[in-house]
Amino acid sequence: MAFRSVKSFLVATFSFFSITFSNQLLAQENLPKEENKTAQSATEKKEGFDTQEVIFGHILDNHEYHFTSYKDVEGKEHHVSIPLPIIIYSPQKGFSCFSSSHFENGEVIYNGYKLTEGKIEAVKEDGTLDESIKVYDFSLTRNVVQMILALTLLTWLMLSIAKSYKSGQGVKTAPKGKQSLLEPVITFVRDEVAKPNLGHKYEKYLPYLLTVFFFILINNIFGLIPGTANVTGNIAFTCVLGVISFVVIMFSSNKHYWGHIFNPPGVPFLIKFILVPIEFTSVFIKPFALIIRLFANMVAGHIIIISLISVIFIIGQTSVVGGWSTAPFSIAFTVFIYFIEILVAFLQAFIFTMLTAVFIGQAFEGEHHEEAAHH
Asked: Where are the beta strands (DSSP E) in 123-204?
């Protein structure tokens, strides 16, 4: 109930600001041309914080890890970031490999290429787009780099724990260190997710379920570190996971599964014309639900956190006192949502794994009924 009240308050707050700023924009459209130009120039001078740019800059993929920006005494803007390697291929120009720092945050053209809104394009000498040159981008973006780091960490954890078990630690003696941290989690996934949904076949699917759970969890936690990428908030990432789960589900299906879809037992003949298309559509809706659920939940939390911080700067542009007065409340709500996001990081990994196990179990559900009838 308290969380719903907080969400209602946040919605009301953001709605107020949206209505206020939209009214100002509509009012400018009704001004005479000269006055409208004056208002626009004044707005451009006051403009110093772009909420949309900050939000989408964090959510979308990028060719560098950007942390902050500052201006020196001369007013020149500098960016604090970690550049990533650019690897592009063009049939006309061949392969090109260089650091993303050469683009200087998209302000500079380098080697005939320009970075525009996260996309590398071939340009002419005057800076206009050169449509005659095709560009294939194979760069290591921050999402890719972070996935590699997450995979490396996952592999190292599991191999080191397996090595400890082989040496007898955790078998003849009590588990220590990483073992004591991860063993309860592995046992939980086995006893509460795999066994209830997969029955006697749980050992066959347990490695996949554990891999999915820990891979999503590690990426969720990495995404909560300031300056990092929100990998699980990328639809391409969740789409690949959903497709892999879909393939596993399809290979686990049997004749009973498809028989219940195309010829539901105990259903009147005319009703089957309605029920069969719905059942067949549900085959594709299941992985789609996995994709959207993880993507939407991880994106929503990050947007709320960034929006709460942005309120300070939005109000601060109109009134310094208002900005400082808003800061304690915004920071308090941000910390509150941040701790909820830590819970969501574990919860979404669990839900994705649980639903995958449920869908796999449904794929060979008919075997359980056949075994029961046999006994």
From this structure: 136-137
pTM: 0.79
Please, what is the Cα angle at 212 between 246 and 181, to 5 degrees? 160
Ordered DSSP codes for 124-152: -TTS-B-TTS--EE----HHHHHHHHHHH
Reported as a single tens digit per residue, the pLDDT across 10-20 is: 434 434 434 44
Q: 137 forms bridges with which residues in the sheet?
A: 88
Position 102, amino acid: H
pLDDT exceeds 70 at position 41: no
Number of independent structural domains in the chain: 3
Cα distance between residue 355 and residue 367, in whole Å? 20
pLDDT of residue 357: 94
Of 333, 262, 347, give the one whose Cα is nearest residue 298.
347
Which of 120, 137, 154 is the last residue before a domain boundary?
137
Distance in angstroms (rounded) separating the CA atoms of residues 49 and 306: 13
My answer on whether 235 and 357 are in the same domain is yes
Q: What is the pLDDT of residue 98?
A: 87
Give the Cα separation of 252 and 350 in Å (integer).
Answer: 21
Task: Answer with the residue of higher pLDDT: 214 or 122.
Answer: 214
- Sign of the C-alpha dihedral, residues 195, 196, 201, 205? negative
Whether residues 329 and 286 fall in one domain: yes
For 245-255, write each residue's pLDDT tens digit. Answer: 999 999 998 88
**Number of CB atoms found within 10 A of residue 310's CB:** 19
**Cβ-based neighbours of 36, under 8 Å, separated by 6 or more:** 28, 29
Query: Angle, nearest 10°, between helix axes 255-262 and 365-374?
Result: 110
